């Protein structure tokens, strides 16, 4: 068990270091950073001045180790545009993004767990096929478009919720629903396949033979076993949702980390972009590590893998 | 390809699957429209007419029979732009699948076939790729390099190979020790022969399922990037860009975003229906 934990942890650290390196390379190999910062109207002298000021004239490996050394300490440098520490900017915006992600995940679970269980219990019937269709519709829905449509219907025509911003709690409802759509298909399918597998196993037959009620069999015996992969995929999906929230935060003008990244991209504020890529990647790595360890704790069969 | 990997009985079963028929009809229709676009558009999709802006579709109140789907905020014919948009979505979808497929399948097959250190490296690359927020990186690269059609294809292709690699790896592992592969080895087949003639054809249908999923994802991501202004550059009529340009007017004339959005949804749904039918036929497990 301990060996599994250590091995899994080492891989996570290695992945994190690789992502750090890629985030650095991203801004260096895909164009001349100084030219991008200076903007289209800058003269050659301006570009040189920026190169000097930001230390971009040093050899690449010096820049890399300098940046890496600071980044592992949580120092992502200074924003060019906001004139503030990048770490402060991200910390200030993180609560909105995390809240949005959790609301989205909660909605996704509330929808997909019952749907998945229902489809498994009625496997092969029209109900099963209908659930499959719902999952597929969720998969085909362009999130930004769904966001705009919901804004028109529920924000403007019905006036139930605010159109944008999260000054009040109900501002999270529409973006949460849109974000949930991205996770519903995979969570529903996984719940369904997990339940089908669980319901076909011997211990369910034993439970039936003992004369337990249908609900008790489904929840206590079936779902408890089907839930193991669902929990870990839910954690991974949360990581994907945080990473994908940039589109939804832009549509609904939620001032979270995604919106910050979007603002910074359009203003060529690369230290911020780099840091957001990194932070979101690190959160994802932590979540998958958590999911794997949880899996191992809940299901001893997986530990040798 | 399909003739080689799908036995006749399965092909017939596919045709009885309503999902497959509907999906094939949608995708086929979009492909034909995309190819024939220059010959079927009633107007030049780039021709601006500032005197006739935001004319509603002909079937709505205040519509003009000259413009079936109305005109946009610059007076361009919406129907013509929608048809050219199908072209962009289809081409991006197909090119991205080819690029990401080449990368992902190569990695996955090598990892699954050789195992050991090579496999460790492949798994590591997949894990790293999955931890990188794709949309954000695509946006950042587009901002740094300046967005263009080719850049969108390249960025999406370089980002969306993970599922190809995962499925190619696991399916290759499943078949590498089967009798017919061993038989090929015994018959003195070269490594290249075994990989291309024994392994690849036998995992091809599983990869076709992945290809549909990735095509759907690529079309959606291109639309999202263009919506955010860093995908296909204006004035090209990408559906995502059409939604983005029209969204200022959506509260007064909702149809301006409904039409391109619905087109996007239907095309992606069609691609997914095709993939789902293939998956049913093959029993490919992609639930993870």
Descriptive account of the structure:
The complex is a heterodimer of chains A (305) and B (288). Chain A has 305 residues and is mainly α. Chain A is built from twelve helices and no strands. Helices cover 77% and strands 0% of the residues of chain A. By secondary structure, chain B is mainly alpha-helical. Chain B has one domain (62-286): MetI-like fold. Chain B is built from twelve helices and no strands. In chain B, helix 4 packs parallel to helix 7, helix 4 (78-114) runs antiparallel to helix 10 and helix 10 (191-227) runs parallel beside helix 11. Chain B is elongated. The two termini of chain B are 26 Å apart. Mean pLDDT of chain B is 84; it is low at 1-6. Chains A and B meet through helix 1, helix 6, helix 7, helix 8 and helix 10 of A and helix 5, helix 6, helix 10 and helix 12 of B. Chain B: It is a multi-pass membrane protein. Chain B: One of its GO terms (biological process) is transmembrane transport. Chain B: Residues 86-275 form the ABC transmembrane type-1 domain. Chain B: Belongs to the binding-protein-dependent transport system permease family.
- Quaternary organisation of the protein chains: heterodimer
Strand content of chain B: under 5%
The pair of chains with the biggest contact is: A-B, 55 and 44 residues
Order of helices and strands of chain A: HHHHHHHHHHHH
Instruction: Find the count of extended strands of chain A (DSSP E, 2+ residues).
Output: 0
Radius of gyration of chain A: 24 Å
N-to-C CA distance of chain A: 11 Å
CATH architecture of one domain in chain A: Orthogonal Bundle
- Give the overall average pLDDT of chain A: 82
CATH homologous superfamily designation of one domain in chain A: MetI-like
Helix content of chain A: over 70%
**Structural domains of chain B: how many:** 1
Question: Structural class, from helix and strand content of chain B?
Answer: mainly alpha
Q: What's the N-to-C terminus distance of chain B?
A: 26 Å
Mean pLDDT reading of chain B: 84
Strand percentage of chain A lies at under 5%
Number of DSSP helical runs of chain A? 12
For the report, how would you describe the main beta sheet of chain A?
none
């Amino acid at each position: 068990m301990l060996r599994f934990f250590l091995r899994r942890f080492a891989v996570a650290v290695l992945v994190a270091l690789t992502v750090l390196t890629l985030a650095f390379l991203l801004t260096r190999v895909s164009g001349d950073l100084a030219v991008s910062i200076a903007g289209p109207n800058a003269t050659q002298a301006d570009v040189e001045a920026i190169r000097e000021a930001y230390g971009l004239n040093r050899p690449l490996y010096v820049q890399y180790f300098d940046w890496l050394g600071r980044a592992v300490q949580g120092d992502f440098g200074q924003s060019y545009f906001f004139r503030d520490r990048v770490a402060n900017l991200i910390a200030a915006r993180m609560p909105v993004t995390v809240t949005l992600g959790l609301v989205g995940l909660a909605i996704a679970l509330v929808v997909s767990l019952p749907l998945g269980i229902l489809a498994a219990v009625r496997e092969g019937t029209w109900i099963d096929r209908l659930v499959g269709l719902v999952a597929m519709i969720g998969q085909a829905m362009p999130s930004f478009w769904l966001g705009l449509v919901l804004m028109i219907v529920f924000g403007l025509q019905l006036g139930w919720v605010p159109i944008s911003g999260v000054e009040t709690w109900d501002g999270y409802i529409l973006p949460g629903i849109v974000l949930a759509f991205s996770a519903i298909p995979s969570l529903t399918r996984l719940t369904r396949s997990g339940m089908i597998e669980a319901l076909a196993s011997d211990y369910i037959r034993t439970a039936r033979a003992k004369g337990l009620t249908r609900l008790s069999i489904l929840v206590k015996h079936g779902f408890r076993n089907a839930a193991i992969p669902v929990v870990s995929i839910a954690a991974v999906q949360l990581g994907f949702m945080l990473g994908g929230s940039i589109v939804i935060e832009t549509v609904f003008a939620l001032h979270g980390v995604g919106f910050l990244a979007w603002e910074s991209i359009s203003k060529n504020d690369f230290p911020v972009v780099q840091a957001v890529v990194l932070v979101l990647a690190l959160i994802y790595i932590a979540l998958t590590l958590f999911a794997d360890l949880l899996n191992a704790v809940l299901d001893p069969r997986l530990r040798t893998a | 390809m399909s003739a080689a990997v799908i036995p006749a009985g399965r092909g017939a079963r596919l045709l009885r699957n309503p999902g497959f028929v509907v999906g094939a009809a949608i995708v086929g229709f979009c492909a034909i429209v995309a190819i024939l676009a220059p010959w079927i558009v009633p107007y030049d999709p780039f021709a601006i007419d500032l005197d006739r802006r935001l004319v509603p579709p002909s079937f709505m109140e205040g519509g003009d029979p000259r413009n079936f789907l109305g005109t946009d905020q610059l007076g361009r014919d919406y129907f013509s732009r929608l048809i050219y948009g199908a072209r962009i979505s289809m081409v991006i979808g197909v090119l991205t699948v080819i690029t990401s497929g080449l990368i992902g399948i190569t990695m996955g097959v090598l990892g699954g076939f050789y195992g050991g250190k090579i496999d460790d490296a492949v798994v590591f690359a997949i894990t790293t790729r999955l931890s990188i927020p794709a949309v954000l990186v695509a946006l950042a690269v587009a901002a740094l390099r300046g967005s263009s059609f080719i850049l969108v294809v390249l960025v999406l292709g370089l980002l969306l190979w993970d599922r190809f690699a995962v499925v190619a790896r696991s399916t290759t592992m499943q078949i590498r020790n089967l009798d017919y592969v061993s038989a090929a080895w015994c018959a003195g087949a070269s490594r290249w022969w075994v990989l291309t003639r024994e392994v690849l054809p036998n995992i091809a249908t599983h990869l076709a399922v992945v290809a549909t999923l990735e095509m759907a994802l690529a079309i959606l991501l291109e639309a999202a990037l263009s919506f955010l202004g860093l995908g296909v550059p204006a004035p090209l009529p990408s559906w995502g860009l059409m939604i983005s340009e029209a969204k200022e007017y959506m509260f007064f004339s909702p149809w301006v975003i409904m039409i391109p959005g619905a087109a996007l949804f239907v095309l992606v749904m069609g691609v997914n229906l095709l993939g789902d039918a293939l998956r049913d036929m093959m029993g490919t497990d992609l639930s993870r």
